[in-house]
Amino acid sequence: MKPYVLALLVLVGHAQAFDPAAALTDQELSAVTGREGVVLDIALRNNVAEDGSVIGCTGTLNDCRIGLEFADRDGIWLMLKEFYGTFRIRDIRVDIATLATTQTAYANEERFKSTSGSCLLGSLATCVPTGQRAVKYTYPGADGVGVYDDLFTFINIGRAALEYDSGGTPGYMRDAATGSVFGFRMSDSRGVNAPAQGRFIGEAYVFGF
């Protein structure tokens, strides 16, 4: 496989000057915040070139395969063959935020408790995360009607079969099972290898770290 990951830069909006070679204390780290937010594009291509063409997925024992071996099933591999695809999320706006200090009508303490009833949010007076620091993710929703360009995903598994270790050769290096128990493809019918598309609008908050 040939995965390509394109991602991220963020950070630091702390006003205090410091030696960049010196280690930060816990107090200094706790004061670090994002400055005016950042925009992220995240892309993953697995055995697919930038122009959408598939790379090296022909013939037996080609690079487009993933082998899964499970506990207590040593020597038996679930092989995903002719596996390739792309994944991209664009224009994720990331910023620091504070959750509202008042509860909404949908507040429910139970969702933040463990199965034993303990609050998972620390020593709060109530187990509702009001006023907590959070990371805010925003999708601006500025696209026109019918435009779906926030998410692109294309996944292909041409064949899936069990392969067994044999004669010192591990199962993931064999292609004895020429049949398939299933195949899978997620794409758009508008073109060859065209990715399915999605659109996001709104905000999401991550807290509790």
From the structure above, extract its key features.
9 strands; 209 residues; mainly beta; nine-stranded antiparallel sheet; disordered N terminus
Kindly estimate the percentage of residues that lie in beta strands according to DSSP: 35-45%
Largest sheet, strands/sense/barrel: 9 strands, antiparallel
Q: Calculate the terminal CA-CA distance, rounded to whole Å.
A: 34 Å
Q: What is the succession of H and E elements?
A: EHEEEEEEEE
Global outline? extended
Number of strands: 9
Q: Fraction of residues in helices? A: under 10%
Number of self-contained structural domains: 1
Poorly predicted parts? 1-18
The rounded Rg comes to 24 Å
Q: Helices and strands: which structural class? A: mainly beta
The overall pLDDT, averaged over residues, is: 82
Number of helices: 1
Structure description:
This protein is an all-beta fold and 209 residues long. It has one domain (3-207). The chain has one helix and nine strands; from the N terminus they run βαββββββββ. Strands 1, 2, 3, 4, 5, 6, 7, 8 and 9 form a nine-stranded antiparallel β-sheet that branches. The longest helix is centred in the N-terminal third of the chain and has 5 residues, at 26-30.
What's the helix and strand layout?
Layout (H helix, E strand, L loop, with lengths): L2 E4 L19 H5 L7 E9 L18 E5 L6 E23 L34 E7 L11 E14 L17 E5 L9 E3 L3 E6 L2
Antiparallel strand pairs: 1-2, 2-4, 3-4, 4-5, 4-6, 5-9, 6-7, 6-8
Task: Please give a quick description of this structure.
This protein has 209 residues and is mostly beta strands. It contains 1 helix and 9 strands; from the N terminus they run βαββββββββ.
